[in-house]
Sequence to fold (728 residues):
Amino acid sequence: MRNASLLAILLLPLVFVRGGADAFEPHKVALAATVAAVLAALALARLFACAKSQGWGATMRDLTGRASRAMREDLAGSALLCLLASSLLSTFFSINPLLSLHGASGRPAGLVTALAIATFFFASRRLSSEPRWLDRVSLVTTLAAAAASAYAIAQFLGLDPIGWSGAATFHGRTRVSGTLGHPNTLGAYLAMTLPLTLLLASRTRSPAGRASVLAAAALSIFVMAATLSRGAWLGAAAAVLAFAGVWLLGGRQRETGAPAPAGRWRIGAIVLVSLLAFLLPLATPMGRGFVTRIREVADLNAPTTQSRVRLWRAGLDMMADRPLLGAGTDAFGVLFPRYRTAEFSRLEWNASTDKAHNEVIQIAATQGLVGIAAGLLVFFFVARATLRVSRRQGTDDRLGAAVAAASLAAWGVSSATGFSVAATGSLAAVVAGWAAGRARSGGGEIPVGLDSSDSPGRPTLVAWVVAALLVTGLWVTLVLPTWSAALQGGRALGLADSDTQRVEGLKRAAAIAPWEARWSAELGRTYLIQSFAATNHSEAWHRLGGSRGAYEQAVRVAPENPEYRAYLARVLAEQASTPGRTSRVSPQEAESALAAAMAADPHGSAVLVLVTQGYLRLGLLEKAHHAAHRAAWIYPDFAVPMLDIGSIALEEGRYEAAADTLYRSLGRSFRDVPWMEATARGNLAYAYLQLGRYPYARDEAMRALLLDPRQEIALRTRDQAERVLASQ
Fold:
């Protein structure tokens, strides 16, 4: 149990696998669940050994008695069981129960993840009877933090051998993320581990060893500063306050007296070095961004702060609609598109998320009032246990309690503006489990559970095999599908839209995890893009059929998502306008689907653009103009609505208005659809051609062809303009 737990604590912050939907979190969660399964197998094997010796009746009576006594004496553990019960209820009554059970593929946080992290709590509570357990945890976390920081330094210096896409930036500088996958997550982890690193330094006798540990702490502080994570900075500040508060509340031994002058000098030196390490980014190229980020800590009008506020409002609105049990564990991302406001889209540009970026609001939205009540109980009883340990006469326990409080405070505060992940959540569970165990045991053994010290016999080979088979069956059923889908789907998403392997990979991911609409939606979008690029009508029609089937599956799995409905309506409009197909959709059916999609989300930029293009394809120019005008009004800096309005004017033969509107669209941002600039320039070239402005038509057509050499309207316009100019 000890070795498995320490191995998990060491590897969780470090492991990543390139090529998946997310190179970090799915694999970390799979690792956490695997270690939890190993711990469960150990417990089962010992249970079988006890049953063989005493009989099942006596064993179950003994186990029930132990569990009952543990629940009475360890209220923190009992509160955690209540939180797990809340997760179970929320999963059962979820809007997508299978998703809530397995968790989303990108950042799984379903019931399986909750059970895995809870296992670390109970394992640590059991191991807390060992006097040096927290020291071992400190050693392992210090090694992990040092490794993650070293990789972050390589990123900071531009020496990262891996070219990551989609890295977080600020003021044009890439923020370091280390092996945690995101700067905020790395910063939160380092803020949590710093108290443990300093604890290790205080327990290290060798001057060289102590200097090495303090150097690792200084490195962590610099990297935490370089992440530009305000939540991590606030978490580190909360850790300092929590340490001081618990140490003072616990009281000092009378015989200790005031710190010796040498001790005061060491503390002062540590504080000075820590401050210098934190301010070191000022002397680097990211200095300006660092200063701006510090100012934004208290700036409620900062864009990232405003986006957080709107995320939190969305989460509270979800809870208001489902107050008792919430939407379901890890179902935030399923509902968020319905609650996403235009203000949020303008700040984050139509981004979607599966987390509320506040752990309390996340629980409120996904587990309702029942989950909030259970979470408050966990907080209260863990805090009470920590204070009880701090009042012990032994300096080791009181120092450990102050360090535990600091680490948990860093986790809690950083999670108030972000979210917990496998590495941070598991470490918080281990630290909280230590505090709960020490408070209950009084520093002695904890008589709970079945291990080699209290079971009458050792597990036989048969017991080990049966336990391993049972746990492996659960792992294959509950953990493997999400992990495998993340690998298959993620690798497919890394391929070009035209690659047939992309389609096959997305099909496999959708088949492995049919409860997750993401894979079907990506498959539908890929088919739709391939249909537009098809060279013959038969192939285009086949791709459209595949797109329709995939989006119908996505809508069945996540009917709450308006974008999936809008994409499906867009596919139906394309099918309805395809001539010569007896199985095509009726224009009335496509029109009805477009109207329903817009009614479901009347302010989403993606929905409005898809609806506009669908109406254009059907030739319903007045309705297309209404949707495009609404999008241009809500998102005045977005180029695509202006492009659509100009295209409508072209269809109506209003070439002067079309040229003016299309020209204006080029002064706006095409956001996440930059390839549509070629369409805007091609249409503008055609408008100039109709107005007799042949040099302008030729020049715009050439610019369009530089962006997309295959664009037909630009090719025709260029050729016609050049013939006219040559004849003149």
